[in-house]
Write a structure and sequence with these properties.
By secondary structure, the chain is of the alpha+beta class. The chain contains nine helices and 25 strands. Strand 8, helix 4 and strand 9 form a beta-alpha-beta unit. Its main location: membrane.
């Protein structure tokens, strides 16, 4: 039996759940070398009425000690000839099965009521997770958007496991609370419910595994960098340019001046696709697009010139306005993939990958199918890829983990060469 990581994905678009399950399981069994350690399933909301039947059907045909998954409005998987596909709005079932020798797998089902207070010690969070920090676990997290208090969870996990990767997404496809689907199976857990409608499911992986991320926020900066000089909660009251001595100004005044310098195309884009980036590294002098956490511009106060954004602000932070469109989004991902490939000696060591992409990307943005996943495989090869289109994407920027929008977040898995990765 091979002692290497084996990562297999199978995709089916059969309209019948039974037929779809049979198809993916048949492919998995054909390619799997030995017993599986972990399964991950992503299922189209087109099957929503069949969600309660999914896990029993899978486990009846395939032995999986641990299984996590969720429903989504769009599903990512690997189709024929190893080509990645993004199935949006149609039935799709994507099953990934992994053999992970020398990797400890801690299955997680978490409810918001279980979280420690945010001012609790890190020990309270490690007790909740059940993995010691020195094991440096990496997390895959799938969450209900209504009940999970996901930002609190990410803040707590960053506090307790500062060097660990946290990656994942929020369930999509259920427009109302209790319509989504989270799937969970742990053969060693007494509370072995197959389907949850709230909370968070996931796994913590530690041992001989490395998890790397690519987080493409799909924006490009415009104008210069500013420093916030006065702010309150999520409202920027004053800021000043960082490249010269200038007095603080209301941000709306600075934005109006900036818009006058833009091309006609960008000026039109700023009417509906304007964002703001917050620099994550306080000490980095030369900032690039990937150095910013992108947040929505929520509104303006013309009377005082203030701008409200989708995050808390504080004086001293550096910010820059950004624009988003299909060309920018494509270029951003392409540059990140190119950079990742150039910095790795051997991308063939990557065993598999997960993709968590915003509902606002895909064909809605690019007007063509399989764009982000196709770009991923163009740069990194025919790596088994699976995932779903999310209501919010989880991924790191600048050493901390955030909930994003309009983003494609990738997790790449490779062996740790025998080290405690």
């Amino acid at each position: 039996m091979s002692d290497r990581i084996q990562w297999i994905n199978a995709l089916s678009t059969r309209p019948s759940l039974e037929a779809a399950v049979s198809e993916v399981v048949e492919k998995i069994k054909r390619d799997l070398e030995g017993p599986a350690d972990l399964g991950m399933v992503f299922i189209s909301s087109a099957y929503a009425s069949d969600y309660p039947r999914l896990v029993p059907l899978l486990l009846d045909k395939l032995s999986l000690p641990v299984l996590i998954g969720c429903g989504g409005a769009g599903i990512v998987g690997t189709g024929g000839e190893g080509r990645s596909r993004e199935i949006e709005g149609n039935p799709a079932l994507s099953l990934t099965v992994a053999r992970l020798p020398n990797v400890e797998i801690r299955p997680l089902y978490l409810e918001a009521n279980d979280y420690p207070d945010l001012d609790s010690s890190p020990d309270r969070w490690t007790e909740l997770i059940g993995v010691a920090p020195e094991k440096n676990p990496h997390f895959i997290l799938l969450a209900d958007p209504f009940s999970s208090r996901i930002t609190d969870l990410l803040e707590g996990l960053d506090f307790a496991y500062a060097g660990s990767v946290k990656i994942g997404g929020l369930v999509s496809g259920g427009m109302l609370e209790q319509q989504g689907g989270l799937f969970f199976h742990d053969e060693n857990r007494r509370r072995n419910t197959a389907l949850y409608r709230q909370g968070v499911v996931g796994v913590a992986l530690s041992g001989d595994i490395v998890v790397e991320t690519i987080v493409a926020q799909g924006c490009r900066p415009i104008g210069q960098t500013y420093q916030i000089t006065e702010g309150e909660r999520n409202i920027i009251l004053e800021m000043s340019a960082t490249d010269k001595d200038s007095s603080p100004n209301p941000p709306l005044n600075l934005l109006r001046d900036l818009i006058q310098t833009l091309s006609d195309k960008d000026r039109e884009l700023a009417q509906h696709s304007l964002f703001i980036g917050i620099a994550r590294d306080e000490f980095k002098m030369q900032l690039r697009s990937g150095d910013f956490l992108i947040r929505n511009v929520l509104g303006v106060d013309p009377r005082h010139g203030a701008i409200a954004i989708g995050d808390r602000v504080r004086p001293g932070q550096r910010v820059q306005f950004h624009l988003r469109d299909a060309d920018t989004s494509a270029l951003d991902l392409e540059l990140l993939l190119e950079s990742y490939r150039s910095e790795r000696e051997d991308v063939s060591a990557i065993a598999g990958a997960l993709m968590f992409s915003c509902l606002g990307r895909g064909e809605t943005l690019y007007e063509k199918p399989d764009f982000d996943s196709g770009l991923f495989q163009r740069y990194l090869g025919a790596i088994p890829l699976s995932g779903f289109f999310c209501n919010g994407e989880i991924g790191p920027v600048g050493g901390r983990t955030f909930l994003h929008g309009y983003t494609s977040a990738f997790a790449l898995f490779r062996p740790g060469r025998g080290r405690n990765a």
